[in-house]
Amino acid sequence: MQISQSNTRLKGAMPMTTPSDSALRITEQFAQAYGRELAQAAQPTAAVALRAAATAARALLAERWAQTQAQDAVRDSVPGAAHPVRRVHYLSMEFLMGRALTNALAALGLEPELSRLLAAQGQQLGNVLEREPDAALGNGGLGRLAACFLDSFAELGLPSFGYGLRYQYGMFAQAIQDGRQVEAPDDWMRLGQPWEVARAELRYPVGFGGRVTVDEAGQRHWQPAEQLEAQAFDFIVPAHHSERVSTLRQWHATAAAPIDFKAFCAGDYAGAARHRVAADALNWVLYPDDSSEAGRELRLKQEAFLVSASLQDVIARHLREAGSLDGLATLGLANAIHLNDTHPALAPAELMRLLLDEHGLGWDEAWKITRQAVSYTNHTLMPEALETWSLSLFEALLPRHLEIIYEINARFLAEVKAKFPGDDALLARVSLIDEGRNGGERRVRMAALAIVASHRVNGVAALHSELMVQTIFADYAAIFPGRFHNVTNGVTPRRWLQQANPQLSTLLDARIGKGWRQDLALLRSLTPAASDAAFRQQFQAVKLANKQGLADLIRREIGVQVDPSSLFDVQIKRIHEYKRQLLNILHVVARYQAIIANPDAAWVPRTVIIAGKAASAYVMAKSIIQLAHDVARVVNSDPRIGDKLKLVYLPNYGVSLAEVIIPAADLSEQISTAGTEASGTGNMKFALNGALTIGTWDGANIEMAEAMGEENMFVFGLRTEAVAQIKALGYDPRLYMEQSAQLRRVIESIAGGEFSSGDAGRYRALTEMLLNRDNYLLMADFAAYVDKQLEVDALYAQPEAWAAKAVLNVAGMGDFSSDRTIAEYVDRVWSVASLG
Ligand code: 26V
After folding, report:
1. Quick count: other Cβ atoms within 10 Å of Cβ 32?
2. Ligand 1 centroid to 439 CA: how many Å?
3. Which one is catalytic: 75, 249, 573, 820?
4. 385-407 pLDDT per residue, tens
5. CATH fold for domain 555-815
């Protein structure tokens, strides 16, 4: 991975304001905002202080926003830039931002000042920061990656907008009742949204339904039956080492005609509010990451709404800046449009519609602009996650887009035919339309549209990108050699090290200087510290302090006492069969049984920590959560076990909880079946914070192992080829049970009701799945996993050796900054130069 972040950082004068300037201004802003808030509230509280602090910080950020926009509007004349810089528009249905205040204060350098101001009001900064609800407008990895990217956009000075939806309710809140997940709405805006800047002047119409007419000149016109309006709300994302910002622009739907007055006058109040209700529904709630059919129409509307509003905004800005549509994607003031998975894959169809129907361009010209502007990232190989829409639904909602897709398809298939004559099967496989030959209905394939309309398509880790072109997109890779490439994910070191782990940051600063925040590759210079006993001791002291903090949180949240000196073994992520939390639990059961059988052995005390949400309709994932709770109850209350083993499940996993858990982890569980986890980004956050990884040869684990040295990771299990081979030969999970008495005891105890108070039925579906299908090869990998866990114990029993490896993990993570990732996107996808 060779990168040149320094080339990406935009040159151009923008000195940092001196801290004393800003301190003075935040003092004023805070005093004003606090006064206003206090006038409305009955008494001074942490919530009042939070809103005032956020409002004050926002005011300073708004100044930086205006400055940044002014600079970007003349980006074709940026001094020192070798090529014109394209403004990047990152379209994503999800942005998992977490809290904003800590980040804003760090970026503005105002933490000490605000801390002082709050103290004067009798408030502690820590308490105030804790009050801020997470902005959880995303499901998991894909949404958090988008948030890390915004941070890097700002830091690298890239002219950029993130575009998303302003969901009223984000990712559901998870509670646990009797060991089961219960979902509650996430009313994250109930205390107001002090961060957002409402752009009342920025409104665009978005239509649905209706029909297409043709005028005398042959020009086609879409007459939508329903008209909504998109209004912009901006969230400003600051750089940490300059005054540049990026913008997350989130669309809010309102009805173009909120009251149907005719219906109202006739006394039909429900009818009168119809449009308003439809608009509200659009913004109502984030879709969970499952593919249930219910409510799919709304999802398609959300996607179309995001795409249309964003592209109208891009075009309006370009017309303002450049005066004409020429060079939308290529000339001096050019623009790039990036699709975060297929969720915004309608974008090319909508861009074509806008260029053809609203701006009068011809097909060839419009198509050229579209292809040069658009690029697409795939985030999962799971075939069930490939989005398709029924033609009938599509036609009913987006008739003009469907016409355009048919035309794109006809031209594409003609090209394929010319290149591969006589291969009708290929045509059927790659068509943008799934003809539903096996009795199914006809459907639009969104990934096909995204690929055909993009100049670049990438996966998110080396293995994933390779498998992508060998499996799900093999045909397209044959048609468009050179279009596909890899850009390995990264995470922002500002949030995931500087903010989440201040103590480790201070230690690193003292040893290698502060530059790692901007250039993570500098971590490499930490390597010699691994063999410095004094440094290792300080490193371990930081880890222990973080573990103490997590132990306190565990006691507060679920009332379980854990020993901070035990090995903290952590798996936190969405609950999914392919991620194999169940394998983790099988190991806990095996260890529990082994301790009982051999109580006097020198067991290395372990605390296994799991957190994560299951999609509400995902029955097996919910059963895994329940099993974790059942096993935890039995293990944690067994007097024979004591401190040798604890299992804790922390409810309501999210960004802020991750920020506490990750710095406190000794061991990071990254145990997906090889070939299933596209990249993983949690894996990177853990290693960056000095946890060792136990992991399969999957996703970005592979590149991490290569960067830090495989001897510094606990790698186990079948690799991708072996997984494929076993499956091809006819996989029989029962065989593994016959070969391992240990595995048999584990499965039998769960199936027999040992953890479910004798209720043998509770886990029947789960154990039968393991014994009969086991799609993710838990049974096949069990022995290797348990063996590797014994190696983990052995190393943890030698604290010096463990610490040395932990330091080498940190030292090896320099490549995994989202700054490096974004620099690669700029180089290979988003710069005009990359278009060749
Ligand atoms: C699918 C759907 C289906 C329809 C409803 C809403 C919804 C939301 C999300 C998804 C798929 C999410 C795919 C995803 O999050 N992939 C993860 O992307 C990470 C960033 O690239 C990567 O590190 C993870 O390995 C990958 O699982």
Report:
1. 14
2. 29
3. 573
4. 889 999 999 999 999 999 999 99
5. Rossmann fold (3.40.50)
